[in-house]
Design goal:
Layout: H1 2-32, H2 34-37, E1 43-44, E2 58-61, E3 67-73, E4 83-90, E5 96-103, E6 112-118, E7 125-132, E8 141-153, E9 165-177
Parallel strand pairs: 1-9
Antiparallel strand pairs: 2-3, 3-4, 4-7, 5-6, 5-8, 6-7, 8-9
Length: about 180
């Protein structure tokens, strides 16, 4: 009987070792990708309650100077259909622009779009465009926040290191109807 128990104990120890190894890998991946899932924001603008993306473009005047305009097309913001996103920067610089869609009061999963720089005739206004699709929710009316994330180089001039970057968040609230 002792011989038949030995392989079982050995198998149990092996499975425990595999489970611990997988757990360690998961924790390492979560640590490495924490900034991707939830970037560290250095500066955040307040929500403009007068902005209604379902009526058109919203423009935020930044406390640090400059303007950020955000637009979603089509303006009725349908679910499960491609949306065209547009962010215009006037007097603001960014090396990368993303839009992160977050459900208000309900976790809706990771939904972030990287926008591409689009050259235009006007040199003072920089335009970034991209696409997104919003998922369907169990609620008839779902409240959302579109977080425009401006990734900017450190303009303090203190360090020439190119890794000195900051993230500026500009929130825009809207709702969708199922």
């Amino acid at each position: 009987m002792k011989n038949s128990q030995r392989p079982t104990n050995s198998n149990n120890k092996l499975w425990l070792l595999v489970a611990l190894l997988l757990l360690a890998i998961l924790f390492t991946l979560a640590y490495k990708f924490r900034d991707v899932l939830k970037p560290q924001v250095d500066l955040q603008e307040p929500v403009d309650n007068n902005c209604d993306l379902r009526k058109g473009r919203c423009t935020t005047v930044l406390a640090s100077g400059g303007k950020v305009s955000f637009f979603i097309d089509p303006i009725d913001i349908p679910l499960l259909k491609p949306l065209k996103l547009s962010v215009e920067l006037d007097g603001v610089d960014a090396s990368k622009v993303e839009v992160d869609f977050v459900g208000i009061g309900m976790e809706m999963g990771y939904n972030r779009s990287l926008l591409s720089y689009k050259r235009n005739a006007s040199g003072s206004v920089k335009r970034f465009v991209g696409k997104a699709i919003l998922p369907v929710c169990s609620l008839t009316k779902m409240n959302w926040e579109a977080r425009v994330l401006l990734h900017q180089e450190d303009s303090s001039g203190v360090s020439p290191d190119s890794s000195d970057k900051s993230v500026h968040l500009i929130p825009y609230r809207f709702f969708t109807i199922k």
